[in-house]
Amino acid sequence: MPSFNFTDLKNFLFLFFSCCSVSAQTLTFDAKGLIYLQDSDFGTFSYATKKIDKVGLDKMGAFMFPLQYEDSYNNSEQIVSNSVIDNFKSIAIKSDNRLCYVLETKGALKKDEKSASFAGLPDGGYVSVVDISNLRNLKPDYRFPVALNPKAIALNKTNEYLAVASEGYNQELQIFELNEFGKPIRVIAKPSQLANGPISDVIWHPKEDFLAYIKQDTREIGLVKIIKDGPTQKIIRLELTGSTIKLDGMPKSGTFTKDGKFFLALDTNNPMGLETNNGQVFVIKFNLEENGSHSLISKAFVEDNPTSIALHPDGNSLVVVNAKKSFDYPINDRNSGKSSLSVLNLTAEGNLSNRGNIALEGILPAGVAFDKTGKNFAISFFQYLNFGKPSAGIDFFRFFGGQNPRIEKQTSRIITNKGMHYLKVIEDF
């Protein structure tokens, strides 16, 4: 556990009361739209019971901004298979905001199945392609097979290559070359030197000559070099570069800073366990030279069971949502659906510090995303702990950066059916 001095306590209290003292305001979010996934095969407390009870159909949905009050009842939704279990990054969007790729991380239960144990869940193995050119009318297009139980997906900036991380034996890393219409035409295999074993996340370096990957089971983070053909600039193979970094926790997912200088790895320490173990965020500097050594620059603690991380557009701040024990309510009702948000600062030298942890009212916050300006961010909740009809939704916050960042909770929220998890912002207007 990190030390917590009086200055930190002052900053924490200021941050906390800024969050809890909310003035009346309208819902503000500077983006074209917000896409979300909804897993209906997963119960709110399934992490505690280790069972899934089917109650509906998995969906993908979207909201457009600015959001008018009546629009909250007219959001577009389509049936798209998805899962919150082993979901690390389930959505990739073409740069023209016309096509969306959605991972099926676990297969849907059969029509006549009402429940299943975690161990008995069907394998996932597809990517669904959805036309999102009109966010008020999403249109599922087609789907194509990938390796079993995919965990993360990443599309490069030129929309030519789609990387998929999965559990599939000897197919743990696949790169699909796409044609001008976004359809896969060729598969590039993983590096021959890359040992077998599930890969939980794959991330393009901003320069796109490298891919970072995370192996949660072996607690490793490594770098893959992209080798291209000179005349065509097409990828011909993938090669490992440098030695992997071993962490002391359980790395889940990661993101590069915009300049590619640092890699931020979100570490669960004890993924969705009932024990109390603070998660961490690690700052890593990759050496892009041939066989260079990668280094751990700094780290900071968040709270237990972190689920998602978002980097502020200015690169100096980040937020992490923590599920804590919000999902074990039937076993330990003292938690009463409590989760939290951690706010961190990142210096130009890569030093990371936690500026405070804030209590949230909601079960399994699973997605967090800043808008285009960074003045606002959104958090999705799998369910709110309310009586009556179970509901989920998205809460919105204002963000004020600086050395001592503060947030203000917006009074309006979006309410949906339970099962809300992954969020993806559509920035361009």
Describe what this molecule looks like in 3D.
The protein has about 425 residues and is mainly beta. It has a single domain, classed as 7 Propeller (Methylamine Dehydrogenase, Chain H). It is about 5% helix and about 50% strand. Strands 14, 15, 16, 17 and 18 form a five-stranded antiparallel beta sheet that branches. A hairpin with a 5-residue loop joins strand 25 (about 340-345) and strand 26 (about 350-360). The chain is globular, with a radius of gyration of 21 Å. The model is unreliable at about 1-5 and about 10-25 (pLDDT under 50). Keywords: Signal. InterPro entries: WD40/YVTN_repeat-like_dom_sf (IPR015943).
